[in-house]
UniProtKB/TrEMBL annotation:
Transmembrane segments: 18-37
Topology with respect to the bilayer: Single-pass membrane protein
Keyword Oxidoreductase attached: no
Primary residence: membrane
Cellular compartment(s): Cell inner membrane
Keyword flag Transferase: no
Protein name: Heme exporter protein D
PANTHER family in the record: HEME EXPORTER PROTEIN D
Alphabetized UniProt keyword annotations: Cell inner membrane, Cell membrane, Cytochrome c-type biogenesis, Membrane, Transmembrane, Transmembrane helix, Transport
Pfam families: CcmD
Role description: Required for the export of heme to the periplasm for the biogenesis of c-type cytochromes.
Family to which this protein belongs: Belongs to the CcmD/CycX/HelD family.
Lineage top rank: taxon: Bacteria
């Protein structure tokens, strides 16, 4: 497609709301996934640290 203006590009031939809406939803989902992965990683690291401390105390 050839667009002669930015408005035509963003309108996407009348399908802009679906195209940009899909990009928006995908961006939100990817950001949520990144935040959830970061949270799970921190929880796993905390659990490993607690286990190491407990093992160290048990071995004394």
């Amino acid at each position: 497609m050839n667009w002669t203006s930015p408005a035509e590009f963003f309108a996407m031939g009348g399908y802009g709301q679906y195209v940009w809406g899909s990009f928006g939803v995908a961006l939100v989902v990817l950001c949520a996934e990144w935040l959830l992965l970061r949270q799970r990683r921190q929880a796993a690291l905390s659990q490993v640290k607690r286990q190491l401390i407990l093992r160290e105390e048990e071995s004394r």
